[in-house]
Amino acid sequence: DAGVIQSPRHEVTEMGQEVTLRCKPISGHDYLFWYRQTMMRGLELLIYFNNNVPIDDSGMPEDRFSAKMPNASFSTLKIQPSEPRDSAVYFCASSLSPVRGYTFGSGTRLTVV
Amino acid sequence: SQQGEEDPQALSIQEGENATMNCSYKTSINNLQWYRQNSGRGLVHLILIRSNEREKHSGRLRVTLDTSKKSSSLLITASRAADTASYFCATDGETSGSRLTFGEGTQLTVNP
Questions:
Q1: For chain B, percent helix, then strand, then coil, each to nearest 5?
Q2: Which of A4, A56, A102 comes nearest B97 by C-beta?
Q3: pLDDT of residue B96
Q4: Phi and psi torsions of B38, nearest 5°
Q5: By three-state DSSP, how is residue B111 classified?
């Protein structure tokens, strides 16, 4: 298995632009998580899905952030409009069962200038 | 806020030495997991210990859990330069559902 695949690896965009991050989870994993990592705040859970249904989006910073999972093999995290404070590494992770551990993607490093 | 807090924040040792990292948490947990993150990469799951377990081994890794003190430790024996990474503990509990809450991590540097 290729693991969790995220794209793009790096994204540089101007403030106000829309940004879309993509994730392909491991086939058969029913759980998908989006995390954000910064030096100041560490790893923060933004949202997670179970069987394509959003279960907990309490970590989504504000209405500028949205996430979708239209099918079991694809999820997107969208920021519109983007702001410099959104600069971070965004990780997607999937899991067969959370008690068995997560598999993380390599992350998307987002820089908003 | 982070559920887990790692101690120390940074640790530098020589190859061959043992490395011990500690994690404390605040609320009751079901499981505690340890992850490694190499620079510029995603986190990699290392080991999971359940709340009713006290110790677990995996290769050169030894994890202990003390639920009365709400703390865990990760011991890496006979460290190698390739062990250089950040190490995070993560917990899931009765109130957190299926999500993991990660600590702030310990940056381990193993010098050749």
A1: 5, 55, 45
A2: A56
A3: 66
A4: -80, 155
A5: strand
* Chain B contact for A99 (CB, 8 A cutoff): yes
pLDDT digits (tens, 9 = 90+) for A67-113: 999 999 999 999 999 999 999 999 999 999 877 789 999 999 999 99
Cis geometry, peptide bond prior to residue A25 (ω within 30 degrees of 0): no
Q: What's phi and psi for A13, nearest 5 deg?
A: -140, 160
- Is B53 at the interface with chain A, CB within 8 A? no
Q: What is the pLDDT of residues B2-54, one digit of tens each?
A: 456 788 889 999 999 999 999 999 888 889 999 999 998 999 999 999 999 99
CA–CA separation, B16 and A112 (whole Å) = 42
Compute the distance between CA of residue B61 and CA of residue B26 in angstroms, rounded to an integer. Answer: 24
